[in-house]
Write a structure and sequence with these properties.
Number of strands: 11
Distance between the termini: 14 Å
CATH superfamily of the largest domain: SPOUT methyltransferase, trefoil knot domain
CATH topology of the largest domain: Alpha/beta knot
Order of helices and strands: EHEHHEEEEEEHEHEHHEH
Strand content: 15-25%
Structural class: alpha/beta
Number of helices: 8
CATH architecture of the largest domain: 3-Layer(aba) Sandwich
Oligomer: single chain
CATH class of the largest domain: Alpha Beta
Number of domains: 2
Strand order of the largest sheet: 8-2-1-10-9-11
Amino acid sequence: MTLKVAIPDTSLIDCTDLRQKTVKVGQIARAAVIFRVEEVIVYSTGKLPATQTKDADLLVKLLRFLDTPQYLRRRVFSQSPSLQYAGLLPPLRTRSHPLLSTVRDLTVGTMRWGIQVRPGKIDLGLDELIDSSTIVSERDPTLFRVEATTPVMSLAVISRSDAPVYWGYIASRTGSLLELLKESSDTTRIGFSRKAPPFQKLEKDLKSTVSNTGSVLAVFGSPDRGILELCDSQREEVKRHIDFWANTVDDQGSETVRLEEALTVSLGLLNSSVGKAIARPGFYG
C-alpha cells in the first residue's frame, strides 16, 4: 500500500522570493500528509532558469524540515538562510509529531523519532534523554519503538514502513520523469492534466487496476507547463509509461490551477476513490 507523488523541480518557479517559496512548500506538505502520501519525489526537468537552480534543493529541504518533528529540528538542521521563513510553515500534526513530552507517559508500543546526542543517550523529545546502547545517527532521525518501560526503558529501532498507521512522508530527488516512470512499472501511474478526460470517466478502470497494484504514483506538472511540455524531448515515451491521464478540475472556472491546488483536489479525489487500497490508516481510519 503506497501513494507517491511526483512533482517537477520547477514547482516553485511562480514564486518571486524565499518567503513565497516557503509558504508554498508548506501548502504542498499539508496536502501530502492530509491524503497520506508516503513519498514526495522531485523529478528533474532541465527547465529551471539559471537563477533558480537551487530551488529543487530548497523544495526537498523544506519538505524534510516539515516532516521532521519539531523537537528534533534544531539538532537536524543547522541555521541557514534558506530557513529564514521557517516560522511561516504550518504544523503537519501527523502521528509522528506527538505533543507528549514526558518519559512517564510513554507506553509499550509507542513510536518516536529520535537522534543520538552522544554514545548511550537518545533524544526522543522528552523531558530527559533515554539510555540506549544502540548506535544510530547523530544527524538523521531514527525511528524507535518502546519495547519495555520497566524495570528500565528499552527501545528498538524500526523503519517507517513498520508503522501500522500513516507516519509522514519521505522527500527525495530523482532523475528524469521517464526514468521514474520506468522504475515504477509495478505501480499504477497517473498523470494529471487539464487536457485529459474527466476523472470520473476513468474511475472504474482505475479502481480495477489499483486493486491489483495496491500502489499509485501521482504525477503533476509545474505551475507554467504541463507534464508533457516539461518532457518535450521524451514526450511520446512518457505518454506510453503513464497508465491513466486524468483531469480532476473539469471545466475549471479559473484560467489556471496552481500546483498546490491541483495536489489538494487530485489527491482528494484519489483518496475518496481508492484511498483505502493505497494508504495506511490516518487518525480516524
